[in-house]
């Protein structure tokens, strides 16, 4: 499949998705959100793909936000729809994917860009990365889940300050608050993420999908995370992956998982 605004490469069961609008600092317009939605949908259905790394093209930006030129003249209804559609098609969609998604934050991750990184399962930043939610400086608030996911990741007080000041964090500051898991030199970023992805894909894809679901359940209204965990734990016992994982351990060999 050909995409207008993204590039996809695959290597050793790991897909790298690169947002490719470098002259606009990879700003998320509607067409890019649609490309990403289609790509993630297809990748998630592909059993060969066991992990996904999401990054931005160029050395300057991961994503510098939602495309301001597209929504500057929107009405209340259009603004509401923009946030609702974006959350459903991309941000919630990635968060709930069974396939693990690592954000390789290679530069500015602002507004929708930081929201996109936060929707991924975890984040690694390059040492030149800058992160923030500057929406209030434009007279609007984060609309792609930023008011929810930032407090989950860094705590309410820090999130309130970052959102209200429209400030930018350096990669080191973001690391200090747990917003990103690692900071590495820019030229090593994607390779570093591939190494982590390489460790992930040795494990049971079925169990990883269920672990993502159980962790996410803690943050879902009306869900009991402990109950979700019990249910998911139980389901694992009916899988080939569980049989293979336990048998391989007892036979002192490496497990070969199928995700079934
Ligand atoms: N939406 C649309 N276009 C954007 C954009 C966005 N969020 N962020 C950057 N761009 C465009 C610029 O308009 C410019 O396009 P042009 O060359 O056609 O004029 C191009 O990307 C390069 O950006 P520029 O501002 O010239 O780069 P810079 O190095 O001077 O500044 C930033 C970098 C990230 C500080 C600055 O681009 C910026 O503040 N962007 C908006 C961030 C933001 O508010 N995001 C939240 C949106 S909800």
Automatic annotation (TrEMBL):
CDD domains: crotonase-like
One Pfam family, short name: ECH_1
InterPro entries assigned to the protein according to its UniProt record, in alphabetical order: ClpP/crotonase-like_dom_sf (IPR029045), Enoyl-CoA_hyd/isom_CS (IPR018376), Enoyl-CoA_hydra/iso (IPR001753), Enoyl-CoA_hydra_C (IPR014748)
Keywords: Lyase
Sequence similarity: Belongs to the enoyl-CoA hydratase/isomerase family.
Protein name according to UniProt: Enoyl-CoA hydratase/isomerase family protein
Origin species: Flavobacterium turcicum
């Amino acid at each position: 499949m050909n995409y207008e605004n993204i590039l996809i490469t695959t290597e050793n069961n790991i897909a790298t998705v690169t947002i490719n609008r470098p002259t606009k600092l990879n700003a998320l317009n509607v067409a890019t959100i649609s490309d990403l939605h289609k790509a993630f949908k297809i990748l998630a259905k592909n059993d060969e793909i066991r992990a996904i790394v999401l990054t931005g093209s160029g050395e300057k930006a991961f994503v510098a936000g939602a495309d301001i030129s597209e929504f500057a003249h929107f009405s209340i209804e259009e603004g509401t729809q923009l946030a609702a559609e974006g959350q459903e098609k991309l941000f919630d969609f990635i968060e709930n994917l069974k396939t693990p998604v690592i954000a390789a934050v290679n530069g500015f991750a602002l507004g929708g860009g930081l929201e996109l990184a936060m929707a991924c399962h975890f984040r690694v930043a390059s040492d030149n990365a800058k992160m923030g939610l500057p929406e209030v400086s434009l007279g609007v608030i984060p609309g792609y889940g930023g008011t929810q996911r930032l407090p989950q990741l860094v705590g309410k007080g820090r999130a309130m300050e970052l959102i209200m000041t429209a400030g930018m964090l350096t990669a080191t500051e973001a690391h200090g608050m747990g917003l990103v898991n690692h900071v590495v030199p820019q030229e090593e970023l994607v390779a570093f993420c591939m190494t982590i992805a390489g460790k992930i894909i040795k494990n049971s894809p079925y169990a990883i999908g269920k672990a993502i679901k159980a962790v996410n359940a803690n943050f879902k209204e009306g869900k009991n995370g402990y109950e979700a965990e019990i249910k998911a734990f139980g389901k694992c016992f009916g899988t080939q992956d569980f049989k293979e994982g336990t048998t391989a351990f007892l036979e002192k060999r490496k497990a070969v998982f199928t995700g079934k």
